[in-house]
Amino acid sequence: MSLKGKTAVVTGSNSGIGLGVARALAGAGASVVLNSFTDRDEDHRLASELGAEFGVDVRYIKADMSSGEECRALIEKAGACDILVNNAGIQHVAPIDEFPVAKWDAIIAINLSSAFHTTAAALPMMQKNGWGRVVNVASAHGLTASPYKSAYIAAKHGVVGLTKTTALEMAGLGITANAICPGYVLTPLVEAQIPDQMKSHNMDRDTVVREVMLARQPSKQFATVEQIGGTAVFLCSDAAAQITGTTISVDGGWTAL
């Protein structure tokens, strides 16, 4: 489908899943606003290159997703927001009784509260146009749990709940809200972890991926950023106009267990 004439704001999108989603939306003809907390020449160059590749307007706007004010300012600076993809996130692993309070606060702020602030700022723009798509990148951990990831799992469960509430409040107004729940996705960050896992487990690459990293993913295959991007584009399509308030798992069967 064509998203020409639509503007998409994708948080946390100068690498990984966010960049994959931004590329897919640009490929469908949308103007795109990239975002992260840095403000480097390479961030703006990435936007220029993406725009040139797909022949659409792509800008980069710095905003720290741990700040509610900056989250809302991102939407204001974008000037338009027909499609909002809340993707920004961080992770920390520790037992609950040892979990650093500062890490808890940061994860809740960036992974959950940022989605509230950007959504609150974007919905009036969508309502004015009578059309909008909110796509929240949650996680398989928004539907299930693992030990030692209390803040991340609490935040991602919260994102799923926020998604449902947004959908109900916007029902009948031409605005949908859905959450994509990926399992393990092969991003540069994940790829960089594989050599250390191979060393610590004394396994070859294929074995450590299958038996360690993808132990809970029945397909034993990573999802790709292109698959997440394609799912986001589908949720923006007319075919998905009555899909709202739900989760779409892209997890190789993880949450079917």
Series of H and E elements: EHEHEHEHEHEHHHE
- Spatially, the strands of the biggest sheet line up as 3-2-1-4-5-6-7
Reported for the largest beta sheet, the result is: 7 strands, parallel
Structural class: alpha/beta
**Which CATH-level-2 architecture of the largest domain?**
3-Layer(aba) Sandwich
Task: Give the count of helical stretches.
Answer: 8
What descriptors fit this protein?
alpha/beta, Rossmann fold, seven-stranded parallel sheet, 7 strands
Structural summary, described in words:
This protein is of the alpha/beta class and 257 residues long. It folds into 2 domains: 7-184 and 223-256, NAD(P)-binding Rossmann-like Domain (Rossmann fold); 186-221, no CATH class. Helix content is 47%, strand content 14%. The chain has 8 helices and 7 strands. It has helices spanning 16-27, 41-54, 68-78, 101-129, 150-170, 188-201, 205-213, 225-235; strands at 7-10, 31-36, 58-62, 83-86, 132-137, 175-182, 247-250. A 7-stranded parallel beta sheet has the order 3-2-1-4-5-6-7, sandwiched between helices. Helix 1 links the parallel strand 1 and strand 2. Helix 1 (16-27) crosses helix 8 (225-235), helix 3 packs parallel to helix 4 and helix 6 (188-201) packs across helix 7. The relative contact order is 0.15.
TL;DR?
The protein is of the alpha/beta class and 257 residues long. It has helices at residues 16-27, 41-54, 68-78, 101-129, 150-170, 188-201, 205-213, 225-235, and strands spanning 7-10, 31-36, 58-62, 83-86, 132-137, 175-182, 247-250.
